[in-house]
Amino acid sequence: MAEPAAPAVRMTGIHKHFGAVVANADVSLSVASGTVHGIVGENGAGKSTLMSILYGFYTADSGQIEVFGQAAAIRNADDAIALGIGMVHQHFMLVDTLTALENVMLGAEPHWLLHRADAQVRSKLNALMLSTGLQIPLDSLVADLPVGDRQRLEILKTLYRGAKILILDEPTAVLTPQETTQLFGVLKRLREQGTTLILITHKLKEVMALCDVVTVMRAGQVVAEVPIAEASIESLAQAMVGRKVHMGRSAEAAHQTGAVLLRAEHLSVTDGLGVQRLQDVSLSLCAGEIVGVAGVSGNGQSELMDVLTGLLTPNQGQLQLEGRDFTPPNWLDPSQARALGLAHVPEDRHARALVMAFAAWESAVLGYDDLPEYSSSGWMNHTHMRQATTNMMERFDVRPRDTELPSSKFSGGNQQKLVLARELGRAPKVLLVGQPTRGVDIGAIEFIYTQLRALRQAGCAVLVVSSELDEILALSDRVLVMNQGRIAGELPIAQCTEAALGLLMTGGSA
Amino acid sequence: MNTLPRWADLVLLPAVSLLVALLAAGGVVALVGQDPWEVIQVLVHGAFGTARGVSYTLYYATTFVFTGLAVAVAFHGGLFNIGGEGQAVIGGLGTGLVALWWSAFLPSWLMLPIMMLSGALFGMAWAAVPGYLQAYRGSHVVITTIMFNFIASTVLVYVLVNHLRPKGSMSVESEMFAESANLPGVHEVLGHIGIDWPSSPLNLSVLLAALAAVAVYLFLWRTRAGYRLRAVGSSPGAAEYAGIKSRHQVVMAMAISGALAGLVGMNEIAGVSGKLMLEFVSGAGFTGIAVALMGRNHPLGIVLASLLFGALFQGGAEVAFEVQGFSRDMVVMLQGFIVLFSGAMTYVIAPQLARVLGWFSKPLTSQGKAGATHG
Amino acid sequence: MDEALIGSMLASTLRVSTPLIFCALAGLLSERSGVVDIGLEGKMLLAAFAAGAAGATWDSTWLALLAAIGVAVSMSWVHGLACVSHRGDQVVSGVAINIIAVGLTAVLGAAWFHQGGQTPPVSDAVRISALMPGLAEAARGLPGLGTVLGDGILGHNALVYLALGLVPLVWWTLFRTRFGLRLRAVGENPQMVDAAGVSVMRLRYTALTLNGILCGLAGSYLVLAQSASFSQNMTAGRGFMALAALIFGRWHPVKALWACLLFGFLDAAAIRLQGVHLPGVGEVPVQAIQALPYVLTVVLLAGFIGKSVAPQSLGIPYSKER
Prior knowledge:
B: 16 helices; disordered C terminus; C: mainly alpha; two-stranded antiparallel ribbon
């Protein structure tokens, strides 16, 4: 469609960094008016940052933005709204105890008397609901609305404020298949009415079904921009995943796996809002292997880790560990897990792995304070604990070598090394690691990989969950890909090609 | 919270807050036509200038140590225990009851420990109920402990008026305990070894308070149970990861807290009055909050802060005696200012303090958050 | 049950409940906006002192009221400075205000009036007396309903009627005006309100100001309508009882009114039931009745008589964050 009119949004040469990390490197984007434009990429590709800049949450270091042909300075969300840009976030901004109508009205009430304001807003909303096909019961409390309705309410909020350009951030993350279909219907109608839609997603099937144009981002840069007619799921998946360093690495020589140490079957988890987070997940871990779990985050990996380590009880499923069987409601708990030789390096360092206010030596015994060498008859043996911490710091090169320093004062990499030292120090039989090198400096990354490989050599079963595909490929003997709460597929490392992984990660071949 | 180095957070900040509180109180003193400086001089002399004054200061401090430790233990478990007042009342009731029942039959080496145990257990129970309700039913511990404070005072009145008051007596108090229920006064003990010391309410429970402070220190930082309690208070997520059950720790923290508050009876009842009466706590529970805040929830800080408040109370009594128009309520007011400035206003004061410190120090390596804890 | 008793109970209940109603409404506005208010007791006490001092010194009802309201609003603003403008702990701040109030009123009282902490009685002209004495007197003459109408309903002073009238007013403000909508929203999800372009701080400060005015009225009532002078600690825990009533009334103006009336009734009944033998129960100790409001609130909080759901952001300091 040759469009002589100015594009709805044109971003040119956008550059944005956070500290040492470059989130957007010379990114240019042109969104034609009245189209649905998809932006796809893995975690960390830079798509959320780019849209946050468009919506005013961040300011770009350099680059220009034009909205409907006019240069725009967007310093905050109010500026963006004034220009007709609206955003529907992943986490809804709604007040549960108010009705849908009240939520739309808040902040833009046309009259100080609610019943007068109500009448005006209601008629406008009814008209909007009619023209867009977005139906929600206006007088229901948000607390009583299902997730799909809440999302529609969020969309209505932006439209009510006159949004002509709508940014949707991973909109189908919390929707059931039916709700997804309904959403697509709504989005298509909006497009017919001339609204411009920008869709941030990693789900290629949806992109193919809905979008007119697709931009693929990778590592902060735009790697492709194609009209949908010229794209296919395979080509997009490949572009998204790109040429990875360890792609198709041949398996380590002379590598043999031993007995099954952990077996999980048919794990299912449904969260408080009724969304299925894990669907019938089964896996087993054998001694002497590293299994990587790949996938865009939010596809059930966190829940899987929580279930396997005893922090979350699944609705259904079974776990076998060291000859013991667990089924809900009598699920594993973290102390039992440790007693059975399972160690856990959590993905959330700050809220889980360490007590930030505690000194290093106190964090170094977290979860293990009942071990005989650390405490006897209820008294903690400070000398032993401090000595053990010093040893840990030596072995894992944690700096500074100060056992008294509060955990919060160590850099991310050193915190992670401390956690690893603690968990690996017990010679575990099974190790579950989440995001092993998130926030870790380059020097420490290779060290951590070496430690994990050494564990494997020693006969431990290691499960690594990471949203960094490079990392998964560097470490794993076989790779499980998670998508939409399921294991979409499993590949031995030698068969991990861009195309295969990309398809699995984006639900392409599901 | 702020970018103060650790030493400033632990020592300088409370000192500055105290100073601001003193200035505010001094302002009121000046407002009513007194000379703040003169008041301070009389106060300090009254508190520390004579042996008798020092004794009274220590006697008041003893009660504050118990209630301050109570608040601090709960804080370390992540809870705000405002119920120290009620827990002290019920603890005292427990102490008094066993004294009334058994003091005539038991020797003091048995009676006194039983009284102590009873006081601790009663106080523990009174705090454990709100603790349980918070942990297992989500009832906010601040509100429930406030309610329990009021219920406690009505219980005490009821028991005294209807059951313990000797027949025909008009005053609301029980009969005197037998001799074995009395904790000897310090002046008595010193007298036995030949030291002449003026008489005062100061009694051996001052040693109990010191022991309690040491015990709390050991518990919190040397035992596994204390470690777990602090973990839950500091980072519930990490505690869960470590397999520590938050609910247990919450109830434990409140129970220990209540037990400590329950020991107030040993000072006031066993040590001084020798009978159960209505006003033996009279606000000490709230002073405990001020003491814990000033002492940064550390036993050593609490002991020092208790001495401070003990001095204020004793010195305040002297000032009320000597200075026209002055009453002890001045100390209550100062206490309120201290709670305000070292409790709620720390976020107002701390950044200013950090700025001032920044003028003095060269850029150090101190980055990021300072060590110490929540308020 | 004789009519005179009902009438006098009704009268006592309304008299006792009035300061509770003012305070409960004050707490309601503050807590609905997300700011915990433990300091109701302290503010009421300070306001009572201000009313007593101003009323006695300047012999004017209006100045007394103004002084009371001014003092209470100032303390609410101090609370706001610590907790809304900065991230101070709301409970600690409230406790501080209570302690300061006890000490400050005693100190100033003793220093200014030399009567052991009391203020001199305000003159009758300053006192707020019955609003419709003529009507009440006439009603008393009616057979069968005389006491109930005359004493119980018509014989009260303006502040009592004001308190009762404020309940529907607060209800209307909360549920029928734009301000009320925003207030309720900010107590549940301040991020959302901020994102919608409304100032969280302004909403909370407005709520605190209204809170101060109502606490000022509560304190004024104690001195201008009830006892004629301030005496030490005269609030005697009523601020906490109002807090209990607020929670018992699930942060809703009308339910809180019923809770206040219930607690006021219990208070009035406590004295009368002393020495009275109830069938099947024996003599009810007055302390049991005194403790009842607090026990009921705990039972409610424990979830045994329905759920009490506080505003979601209550007690959590708000900071803009991404």
